[in-house]
Amino acid sequence: MARRKKIYEGKAKILYEGPEPGTIVQYFKDDATAFNAEKKDVIEGKGVLNNRLSEFFMTGLNNVGVPTHFLKRLNMREQLVRACEIIPLEIIVRNYAAGSLSKRLGIEEGTALPRPIVEYCYKDDKLGDPLVTEEHIAAFGWASQQDMDDVVALALRVNDYLSGLMYGVGIKLVDFKIEIGRVYEGDFQRLIVADEISPDSCRLWDLETGEKLDKDVFRHDLGNLADAYTEVAKRFGVMPKNATHNAKPTLIN
């Protein structure tokens, strides 16, 4: 394995220096967390499935003109991505009431929303990723008004693409979260979709049965998380041949 240096380790992924300037290797772990990491477990094969699914979704977005950081998959657990400056926000798009929205507003889970709702959370695990408004974002300089206009436009384009894709395989896209990064080309800046798109970052329900096929299975002890993710991978035809591959990267300090 190529010698490389770890840049960052999060709850579900590890980032390493890439083989070329401006690139990063993103490694998907098997760790599962919920409720701001209060609940933890290791789900064998989860990282493999998320790597393949995120590759599939990011490639599709690139192909329809929605820019992402994804460059190529390297192996069962790693992908090469473009380095970018992450805006410190989680962008959440909701099509149906679920999770915290249902709790905050007293709306029954599963209720169709009158239109997609875009929300923002400030990325800080110690604070529990609190919900913020565009007023907070502008006041604290996390993003400009032009950035936010572009963020909303990107988020809604991702929603349109993913909603249709999911519907085609019998899945309802309840909600999802993405991160957005800035890349610079000379004096020109543009925004791209970053991080990952996988069942870890989406709420996915079977259209007919309402069965949950996302991390809520782990959050609420509804069954086997790997089985749920495997079902999503099978529907999209990206089921890896060796979903329990558990090789670990070699870290050179």
UniProtKB/TrEMBL annotation:
Cellular component terms per the entry's GO annotation: cytosol
Annotated signal sequence range: none
MF term (GO), any: phosphoribosylaminoimidazolesuccinocarboxamide synthase activity
CDD domains hit by this protein: SAICAR_synt_PurC (cd01415)
GO biological process, any: cobalamin biosynthetic process
Family to which the UniProt record says this protein belongs: Belongs to the SAICAR synthetase family.
Name of the protein in its database record: Phosphoribosylaminoimidazole-succinocarboxamide synthase
Organism: Sagittula marina
